[in-house]
Amino acid sequence: MAGAYHELKKLHYLKLIKECAQSGKDNRTWCSENGIAYSSFMRWQAQLRDEAAERVMERQAIVPVRIAPPEDDSDFPAEASLEKIQIRKGELSVVLPSTLSQHMFWKL
Is 0.85 topped by the overall pTM? Predict the structure, then answer.
């Protein structure tokens, strides 16, 4: 029963957080105007953010990479293709310099 109550409270605060965000007001002002304890609001916001981050991290997976020959790109000379790393998935494209240091990556 305690689990069900916690889930209801979580849904309630999620609704409040969305309403606050849509109001355009800062959290403290919105909480004051709506009779919400600011400390409770911030605690639930942090807890819900942490839970969402955990769900995102659980979904991470190793993605297979296929090395493709450089495409003919009239905007860049042939040797320029060696100076960049391009990652594509569907319509998404990310271009990085090939000199990117491993220290530039966020370590988990």
Answer: no
Question: What is residue 69's DSSP assignment?
Answer: P
Sign of the Cα torsion 49, 55, 61, 67 reads negative
How many structural domains comprise the chain?
1
Task: Print the domain residue range for 6.
Answer: 2-58
For 36-75, b/e burial (b = at least 16 CB within 10 A) is beeeebeebbeeeeeeeeeeeeeeeeeeeeeeeeeeeeee
Picking from 85, 10, 86, 21, the residue whose alpha carbon sits closest to that of residue 51 is 10
Q: Is the pLDDT of residue 32 over 90?
A: yes
Answer yes or no: is 88 within a domain. Answer: no
In a domain, 74, yes or no: no
